[in-house]
Amino acid sequence: MLLLYTLAAIVGWSQVIQCLPTASGIPYATIRNFVTTDILNGDDGMPPSPDAPLSYGKPVLHVDTDGNAIEEHNGRLFYYNDQYYMFAEKWACGRFSFFLGNVTGGYPRNQNFPPGDYGGQCGIVIYTSPDLTTWKFETLVQPQGVKGSPTKPKLLYSSATGKYVLWLKAGNELGFTGGLYYLTADSPTGPWSNATVATGDHLAHDFDIAQGEDGSHYIVTDAFRGNFDPESAGGSLPMWDVWVQKLLPDLTGVVGTNDTTVQVMDTVDSQGIGVATIGGKWYITGGPTCGNCEVPIQYLSASSPLGPWSNEAGVISPDLKQGTIIAGRGCGGQNKGLNKLPTANGGEVVISAIWGYRTSPISLAWAGMVQHGDNSQAISSTYWYPLEFDEGGRVKEYTCAAEVQLPLVEQRQRKVPVMPSYQPDCRVRDNTTFVQTGLDFGEGPIRIPVFQRTDDLGPYAQDGPVMDAALVMTVQYEDGTQSSVSFPASDVSWAPTIVEVPLETGQPVKSLSLSTTATNGCYGVLAEPKKMQGSKYAVVDADGEDEAADAQVYVHVDGSDWTPW
Ligand SMILES: *[C@@H]1O[C@H](CO)[C@@H](O)[C@H](O)[C@H]1NC(C)=O
Ligand SMILES: *[C@@H]1O[C@H](CO)[C@@H](O)[C@H](O)[C@H]1NC(C)=O
Ligand SMILES: *[C@@H]1O[C@H](CO)[C@@H](O)[C@H](O)[C@H]1NC(C)=O
Ligand SMILES: *[C@@H]1O[C@H](CO)[C@@H](O)[C@H](O)[C@H]1NC(C)=O
């Protein structure tokens, strides 16, 4: 909710108004979810499924203060100690997530690769920011004690113990409980303890947690019901039960008594749960079960976390089977939870985090819905939307806008720059070379984020866990000489991460090219709108040159990515 508050007369405020003219006078961050102009002319080497055609625009990637792509998969936002935190899943090690359901048509069954050195790192990544715009990488948490890759990080603070508590989900998709874990630490950036299974019933699958006015925390889960919908394709659609439960004061499990537990929905096709309380009301978001789809977002509301919960049609439990739709195709992804943050003048905002999975033409689609996107989502983006409400506290339909304004806490008496955004371009393949000419790289080294991506062969199969040949970066100098560096695939991350190319001759650089002899995927760069007139961004293959006239490759120069404050 964008609560609009009357401005308080405070010292320095006139300066803020001058820099940040919003209707409400509240400072804000401008976040780009999609590009309005595709500077790659529709060809980034990663065509989407025709059933998920990126109709809101090409997704953008953002970079952190080191120039590496921000991984915001299942990203969740928090505000503690006068700064913003983002916790998210890092997929940079070449993590894959194969489709769970049954597919007829002869794909080999779930293909897991042995642990290996596939490029980057995975785990839970933690970033901090003063303004939701400039994000600094803080640390990577690789919790001991969980099976598989941990997901859905939710940071809490227990005033009972004075500890930060990090909830995670790991594995156990179709368990009834036992799939949620917690870690504890004295600070949001750790060091974090080993993971312990959170105690109580119905603690499995998707979850979200909100803190009420009285300081108590409530968890909402959509745990497996134990049966599948026989009417669904392949009879493989799992049914869920949605529960709300009060957490123990130390936030390590649920209280578990009948007066602190409520079943909101029974045997439903509803998952991807989120919860938040704002303006005296409670909201749960969710949507139909869908393996990585552009899926509707629905909501329920209640005046208390323990209900009664209802949709806008007034249906309540136990008859409640679905919420009121607020985004017909989820703004191009699946909502992964709600993030409540403080704003200026004691206000609050709830932000939806929609994970837009990458898809390809061979992704599986049922009834026009891609049921599984790409096996790797390392370069996928999260789209951020602030919830808006009408006077009755009803959630308004999402705009799915390319660019949104997120209200900030009033802490910076200066302009917040628009977050620079980039398009990933994965077209470096055997016999296809990327060439950038006309950029001034100074004395070098050239610091450029690159990534790898092996090809999907289907929802259960991948063309190897790592590229089968190195990425070669070649610098041509004005005097005709050249130098090359070869990066083995095990040194190239799956999320755009800086590599350094030294300049050797002291000569001005004519061009930088990226090539490979790998045959099982692509290497990629980030593209940004052209700033250097006369430069040229192109890929070259046997058929000739394909120039993107409005693009240039993103090269990281310390401190230069941000509009000066
Ligand atoms: C955490 O787990 C690791 C691996 O299981 C174990 O070696 C270590 O002792 C544990 N640390 C603590 C503090 O329990
Ligand atoms: C997959 O199909 C098999 C055979 O039809 C069936 O026994 C199994 O329960 C199905 N699994 C799921 C998750 O639907
Ligand atoms: C809690 O609710 C369950 C299900 O309705 C019931 O079986 C049980 O007796 C209740 N427990 C208490 C202590 O009231
Ligand atoms: C690349 O070119 C070589 C030589 O012409 C050819 O043998 C090879 O099949 C080509 N590779 C691809 C992926 O087209």
TrEMBL record:
It holds the Pfam family Glyco_hydro_43. It comes from Knufia obscura. Residues 1-19 form the signal peptide. This is Glycoside hydrolase family 43 protein. InterPro entries: Glyco_hydro_43 (IPR006710), Glyco_hydro_beta-prop_sf (IPR023296). Keywords: Glycosidase, Hydrolase, Signal. Coiled coil: none annotated. Belongs to the glycosyl hydrolase 43 family.
